[in-house]
Design brief:
This protein is mainly alpha-helical and about 55 residues long. The protein is built from two helices and no strands. It has one domain.
């Protein structure tokens, strides 16, 4: 029983590690091609928020 629980813990740890590595690689790849955060979209969104804020005032 102890070995069984130890194997489940090891398997879970490996899965979490692989998932973390995959997310890091995805983040790096998307950031490298510019799809992770598009600066132009961010700028336009900030302009919309500012224009909505100025209309309320």
């Amino acid at each position: 029983m102890n070995e069984w629980l130890q194997n489940i813990g090891l398997f879970s740890t490996v899965l979490v590690l692989l998932y973390t590595i995959k997310k890091g690689i995805d983040h790096y790849d998307l950031k490298g091609i510019g799809d992770y955060e598009d600066i132009e979209i961010t700028r336009q969104a900030e302009e919309v928020v500012q224009s909505l804020h100025s209309r309320k005032s």
